Each structure stands twice: as structure tokens, then as C-alpha cells.
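Chain A, query sequence.
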Amino acid sequence: MSQDALTNLTIESNIEDLDILEHSDDISTTKQIVSKLIPSQKRDKFTYFLKPLKRGQYNITVKAMSSKASDTVQKTLLVEPQGIPQEMSKSYLVHLPEEGSLEDEITIDIPENAVPGSQRIELSVVGDIFRPLMMILQKLARVPYGNGEDNMKLIVSNSIVLKYLNVLNYSDPSLEIKIRQNLELGYQNQLSFKYLDGSFGLFERKTERTGDIWQTIFSLWGLQLAQDFVYVQDKVMNRGLDYLQSKQQKNGCYKSENSLEDDVKLTAFGLMVFLMDEDSRTKYNETVSKGLEYLNDIWSNLEYTPISVMAAYVLFLGEHEKAEDYLKILTSKAHLTNDQEQWTKSETLQSHLETTTESLMKVFESQEIPEQNLLHIARGLILSKNEESSIIHMVALNTLITFVKKLLLSDTNLNISFKDDQNKSGDFLLTKENSEVLQKFELTSSSRNIKLKSKGHGFALVDVNYVYNLLPQNQTSSIYSTNISLEYYSKVFNYLTICSSVLTNDTHSKFVIIDINVQSGYAFTETSFNEIENLNEDIKSIKFSNARDKAVIYYEYDPSNELCVELELRRSYNVLNSKPGWIMVYGEQSKEQGASNSFKFYDS
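Chain A, predicted structure.
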């Protein structure tokens, strides 16, 4: 401006829980309006310190006004608790076939070292046993992305949600269009993980000539599900089956890199792909027959575990003469544990997920599952929601949907009341008209115990979902090592160097994952990622968040070499009391055995 101007600067937020401070050490006063004389033809700056008091998205509006001109700028500040989110869920099944009442108590297990302010607890009730599972899958019913396995899981999830809607004759045109578009895009993405020999791999084809047996089986199984809703080329399926046929051992098994049980599991899943389609069963009859004989020969050597159930199920699908005998043996060995049908190696449960879902396999084809057994199996699926999604979980859920209508009681009339240890209370009323509607209530973050009382008749599922954050701990590992070095370049740019190595060959993971969460106030530059991916052929994939404050690097490890990457970080904004960044290095199947370190640029 040609003249000096007295300018008033105003700063506002859409959330009241934000202290706007004039000085960094000002903890009691706020000053939202500042007046300053701006000399003509000059510029000046105002400094405010923002102190959010709770999590959330703050819309910050800054207005500058003088007698000559005015302007307004709005920015968004997303405030999240530090640490790694831990999402947990507990479920309680209400089943009153006749008029009656039930009481139960649910405890909420949040550790004392949870990050303050990170806890959120929600209670929900629904009369559709599949709704919580479908909500999880619907979160995954989004545009597929990531590596070959991530992309395939999203294809399967989209397919299962659409199948669920069709079984219930539920009309949601917008969701159906979205899912079909996701499936079409997911299919095209999956083709980028297809290799010249017809196999599929975890990462996009670069110089490798072949993929992976496990990824090929998973991809073909998922594409067979998607075929009901999107066009999948026959040659893609046929080339994949040809690859699997070529990899079958002389004794009929598919060889894994690990144990005998893994060989059996891999063989069973591989045969399942051939047996899902009648034409494939006929064309590859010799392959199927050899595989079935392998499972038959090995079955008596297996303990009564999920692996033996899976093998018996595949023998049943393949109409093997011994299948009925094996199923009878398994049925006699099954017992109820925590109201679920399971097979275990002793008193100790195997994977909660697998022991429950695989118990369903013995009766998949019979179409005559008693309602009470369905409830046991479905309850096990729901209680396993905290487990990481696996193919076996998806197989069981996909098939169980066939029986969904058996579990929807048409005359539900239930009143479910609750009271927690913080004296929060309420009621949920479920009727025939609203049984499929998910009802929610948000509890206080200090709730740790909930008492439930149900009256009436019908069926309902009560869910307590809660989340809290934990600070990462510096952790050493006997398998993985990580070293960090920091280089200060300027007030804006700094460099982070990470070196990772695998200390032993005794690992089931072919790939190593470096998980990085940067120090608050910093973000990765795009340049550094492009450079390291181009310079190092061991790095197969790099993914980072939209804000570029998180990154995941996948690389194929060489036991004789150490992988080092240098990443450029840019300070996006100044943060007082900046929280450290952290790095975790682990295998794709052994996260709990990984190593972790924190880091901090102390010039912040």
C-alpha cells in the first residue's frame, strides 16, 4: 500500500477447545485480535501459538482488516493423539428364542500406559449378526490399492459385500455401482501383479520372471468370487491354473518354504481353486486327483487341528471316498469352547480365528446347518474381529452368507439396557422393523465396565468398540536390526538415514517392512522416495500417507546385505514440544518379532 496502514488481525477456530496464545510460554491468556501499524510498501508478520486441548479437526480462520483493504485465509489443523492406534472390540450375543431375560457384563481393557486423550469407547446393538462383519468389510469396500495382496483383499471384500446385499435382496444402487467400479479397477490393478508365466506376485512385475504360489492361489480364488460381478478374462484364469499345475510336486503337494502343516494348507487351498469351477475340475483332473491323494495319505498323520479340518473339507469337495469317514472323525472330536465349535491341539486354543471359521467347513455343502450351530460359528467369526484378516476368515464368511436368512429372526422384540461404572446408562429397543438398524451410544473414555440386561425374545448382537494409542517403545530383536542417523541440513530440510538388516535365515518372511512415522511438524519430500526406489532394486514398494507424515517401505531382504535408505524431510510448520518420530522394522509374517526405534531432530 502507498500509505502506512493500521491493521487488525483476528484469528478464530470452529472448535472452542483451542487456546490462541500471544507468546509460547503464555498458558493463561489468549489474544485473538492484534493491531499493528504496517509501513507503506512493506510487509510484516504476526506470530500466534495455537494450543489444541483435544483431538479433532480445527478450521483456523485468519482475517486481516485495515481502512483500505481486507483479506481472509482459512487453514485446517488436524490434531491426533501421538502413538500407535490399537483398535479392539468385544461382542456379546443375545439369543432368546422364547420370552425371557439375560444378564451379562463386559469389561473394557485399556492399559494404564495408553496415551491420555486417545481413548474412545462406543457401545452398539443390532439385530443382524452379519452387520458388524459387513461394516468391517464395507470399510474395505473402497478403491483397491497397494501391493498384490492388499489389492486382492479389497477385491474379495467388495465381492463379499455385494454378495451379502444380493442374498438379502437389499437394494442400494449407489453402493452397488460403487462396488462394481471398485471391482473393475481392482481387477485392472491386479493384472499389474501378473507375471509372464501366468502367476501372480506381491509386487508389480519389474525384472522378475515368476510370481509366488501363495499369491497366485489367493488371486485366482478372489477373481473367481469377483467373476459374479465383473468380467474376468478366461485366459487370466487359465494361465494361472496352468502355473499352479506346473508347480505341483510329484507326490501331489504344493511345497511351502516352512513346515509340513504349511504344505498341507497350501495344497488344500490350491485344490480349492481347481474345485470351485466344474470346467477346471475336469480339465485339470490329473492335478486334482494327485492333490487329493496327497491329502488322503497325509491326513492320518495330522493332529485334530484346523489344518486337518481344511484337508477333510477339500477331500469332501473333491468327492474322495474317504472324506465322509474323516468328517465323522472330526465331528466326534469337536467340542464347544466358549460357545463355539472348535478343534484344538489340547487345552490351549490355536488361532481364535482359524479354529472357529474352519469348523464350518465340514458342513458347507450340506446346506442343513442347525440354527444353534450357525450361531456358534457366526459368533466365533464376530469374536475374531480383532484378528488380522486372512483368507480362511474370508472363505468362511463368504460361505456363511448363504445361510444369513436363517439367522434373521422376523419377530424380534428385545429391550437391552446398560449401565457403566461411570453411571452412564441407556436402553436399546429392537423390533421387527428396526432389527437391521445399527444403534450406537458413545461412552465416556473412563468407562471400564458395562452391565447389560436383556428382556424379551429374539436375537441381537451387542458390540463394544474401543480404541486407544500406545507410544512405541525402543525394542531390540533377535531377527531384525535397525540403525538411525540424523543429519541437520537447514532450518527447513533435514535428512533421516535408516539402515536395516536381517540377522538370521530362520524367518518365514520373504519381505521386510520398514514402517515410519515422522516427528510432528515434519513431512517427507516426494523427491527422496523417487530416488531410493529407482536406485535400489530390492525395494519393491513404497506407500505414504496423504500428509506424507507416514511411510511404509517393502523390500526383499538379502541376508548378506544391509539395506540403507536416506530420506529427506521438510519441516512443514513449527511445533513446540515436538513429539518424536518412530521406526519399526519387521517381517510380513512376524511383526511381533520386529525392532523399533524413535528419533527426534532437537533443533525443533
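Residues 480-599 form a domain with the Immunoglobulin-like fold (CATH 2.60.40.690). Residues 24-29, 335-369, 385-389 have pLDDT under 50 and may be disordered.
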